Every structure is written in C-alpha cells, then in structure tokens.
C-alpha cells in the first residue's frame, strides 16, 4: 500500500478494491495514477466469493464514508464490480484482471455485461484498464476541481510529447 493510501484510509476519496492480492500486479497501475494526482485512496482486498459479507459491508458504507468513486478489479468470474455497483450509489469503475486460462476475456464479459439499471464503467483488460480507470476517475473529479483539471491537461500534454518523439526502428 502506498503512503498516500495508508495515511488516508479514513478520508479517502477513492476506494481501490480487488478480489485477491493476486490482482495487485494489475491494480497497482490504478493506484499509481491516483498517487500521481494526489487523490487520497484506500486499497483493500474485498473478495465477492470468499468474503461476501465484507463486500456487502463495504458497499453499504461507501457513500457515507465519503468515497466518490470505487475502482474494482477482479478476474475470472469477476463479480466484485457488479455487486459493488448493486450495493452503493457511488460510481464503480471495473477493471478486468487477466485470468490464467481465459486471459481475462471471462473477466471482461463478467464485468461489462451488467443488466440495465446497474451500470459498471468497464475498462480494458489488464494494466491499461487499471490506469485508464484511475484516469477516468481523475477526469470525473476534475469536472468540479479546476486545479485538478489543469493537472490532467498537463499530463496529456506530456503524453503527447512522448508520442511525438517516438521513432520507428529502421526497416527494409
Ligand atoms: C478472483 O479470482 C480474483 O479477483 C482473482 O483475479 C481470481 C483468482 O484469485 P486467487 O486464486 O489468485 O486468489 O476472485
């Protein structure tokens, strides 16, 4: 857990939750973006299948605790993001974690195919999805925070410069 996350467990703006500690390799990329933008966040394992009562408890209190977004990652039968969306009005951003046998296509379909009325904003499988979920949270928070929006614009400008400086290796 990052310093930001440890210091802010009781005043977090964003919850980063995952079904297993094995998801951290992917979910750390969401936390890294939140760290970069100084968004206070907590990081927890909340398994839908192995600790369902804890999941219900987390969802039941998320809004009153002040969370404004929940980034939820899970793999395989990835029910955590959808169940969290069912438990709280706080918007849920789902990250499909690559699975061992189906490489995350199972995770993606489990998260994205929500029934009408209970949305989960679903991102790409793996690292890009985790980072983009966090960037989308930043963009949402930035709609009411001009300073944060300027930082997001600067982040994108740096990204543009990196892309412009890319050189393709010589080829025949
Ligand atoms: C899911 O099962 C987790 O989100 C994880 O992606 C997957 C495997 O969990 P472990 O067996 O590695 O703990 O609930």
Q: How many runs of DSSP E, i.e. beta strands?
A: 5
What is the number of helical segments per DSSP (H or I, 4+ residues)?
Answer: 7
Order of helices and strands: HEHEHEHEHEHH
Unreliable stretches covering 5 or more consecutive residues: 3-8
Identify the bound ligands. 5-O-phosphono-beta-D-ribofuranose
- CATH A-level architecture: 3-Layer(aba) Sandwich
Q: Which structural category do the helix and sheet elements fall into?
A: alpha/beta
The radius of gyration computed from the alpha-carbon positions, rounded to a whole number of angstroms, is 17 Å
Shape descriptor reads globular
Kindly, what is the distance between the CA atoms of the first and last residues, rounded to a whole number of angstroms?
A: 47 Å
Fill in the CATH topology.
Answer: Rossmann fold
Give the C-level CATH assignment.
Answer: Alpha Beta
Strand order of the largest sheet: 2-1-3-4-5
Helix fraction by DSSP (H/I, runs of at least 4): 40-55%
The largest pleated sheet is described as:
5 strands, parallel
Domain count: 1
The mean pLDDT is 95
Strand content: 5-15%
Task: Describe the overall structure.
Residues 12-163 form the PurE domain. Catalyzes the conversion of N5-carboxyaminoimidazole ribonucleotide (N5-CAIR) to 4-carboxy-5-aminoimidazole ribonucleotide (CAIR). Pathway: Purine metabolism; IMP biosynthesis via de novo pathway; 5-amino-1-(5-phospho-D-ribosyl)imidazole-4-carboxylate from 5-amino-1-(5-phospho-D-ribosyl)imidazole (N5-CAIR route): step 2/2. This is N5-carboxyaminoimidazole ribonucleotide mutase. The structure is a single chain. The protein is an alpha/beta fold and 172 residues long. The protein is 46% helix and 15% strand. The protein has a single domain, classed as Rossmann fold. Strands 2-1-3-4-5 form a five-stranded parallel β-sheet, with helices on both faces. Helix 5 links the parallel strand 4 (92-97) and strand 5 (121-122). Residues 18-20, 22-23, 47, 49, 74-76, 97 line the site of 5-O-phosphono-beta-D-ribofuranose (RP5).
């Amino acid at each position: 857990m990052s310093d930001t996350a440890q210091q802010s467990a009781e005043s977090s703006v964003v919850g980063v939750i995952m079904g297993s500690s094995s998801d951290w390799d992917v979910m750390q990329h969401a936390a890294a973006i939140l760290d970069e933008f100084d968004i206070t966040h907590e990081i927890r394992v909340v398994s839908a299948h192995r600790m369902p009562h804890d999941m219900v408890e987390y969802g039941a209190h998320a809004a009153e605790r002040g969370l404004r977004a929940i980034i939820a990652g899970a793999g395989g039968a990835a029910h955590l993001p959808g169940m969290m969306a069912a438990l709280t009005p706080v918007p849920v951003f789902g990250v499909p974690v690559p699975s061992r046998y189906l490489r995350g296509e199972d995770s993606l379909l489990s998260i994205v195919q929500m029934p009408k009325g209970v949305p989960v904003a679903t991102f790409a499988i793996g690292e890009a999805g985790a980072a983009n979920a966090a960037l989308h949270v930043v963009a949402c928070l930035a709609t009411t925070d001009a300073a944060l929006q300027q930082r997001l614009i600067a982040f994108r400008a740096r990204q543009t410069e990196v892309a412009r400086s890319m050189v393709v290796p010589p080829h025949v």
